[in-house]
């Protein structure tokens, strides 16, 4: 599979192959066949395999993380400003009413 393992893998009599833990990428699987006399066909067949990243590693997930982080920072800043305003209004002698 080009992009992962560029060497040919002889499967013998098996008809399947498994690749695990593939990184998000576009791979090309090339397959050659042989007959019962072990004569290999020179032509190959190609299959393009696209592995997409998990949802938590996509651009829209990162955008969501940034929006949530921005919202948290905004809420903390607003809360701090509100606390400072209350503190200023409660200091003896600083109040507007007598």
In brief:
The chain has 98 residues and is α+β, with helices and mostly antiparallel strands. The chain is built from one helix and two strands; from the N terminus they run E-E-H. It has one helix at 59-90, and strands spanning 25-31, 45-51.
Q: Which strands sit side by side, in order, in the main sheet?
A: 1-2
Query: What is the CA-CA span between the terminal residues?
Result: 83 Å
- Major sheet details: 2 strands, antiparallel
* Rg from Cα: 31 Å
| SS field, number of helical segments | 1
**Proportion in β-strands:** 5-15%
Number of strands: 2
Helix fraction, binned, reads 25-40%
Structural class estimated from helices and strands: alpha+beta
Task: Give an account of the 3D structure.
By secondary structure, the chain is an alpha+beta fold. The protein folds into 2 domains: 1-52, no CATH class; 57-90. 33% of the residues lie in helices and 14% in strands. The protein is built from 1 helix and 2 strands; from the N terminus they run ββα. The protein has one helix at residues 59-90, and strands at residues 25-31, 45-51. Strands 1-2 form a two-stranded antiparallel sheet. The longest helix is centred in the C-terminal third of the chain and has 32 residues, at 59-90. The chain is rod-shaped. The N and C termini lie far apart (83 Å).
């Amino acid at each position: 599979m080009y992009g992962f393992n560029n060497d040919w893998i002889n499967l013998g009599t098996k008809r399947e192959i498994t690749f695990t833990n593939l990184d998000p990428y576009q791979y090309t699987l090339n397959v050659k066949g042989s007959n019962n006399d072990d004569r290999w066909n020179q032509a190959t067949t190609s299959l393009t395999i696209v592995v997409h990243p998990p949802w938590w590693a996509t651009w829209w997930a990162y955008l969501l993380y940034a929006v949530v982080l921005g919202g948290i920072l905004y809420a903390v800043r607003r809360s701090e400003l509100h606390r400072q305003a209350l503190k200023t209004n409660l200091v003896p002698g600083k109040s507007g009413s007598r």
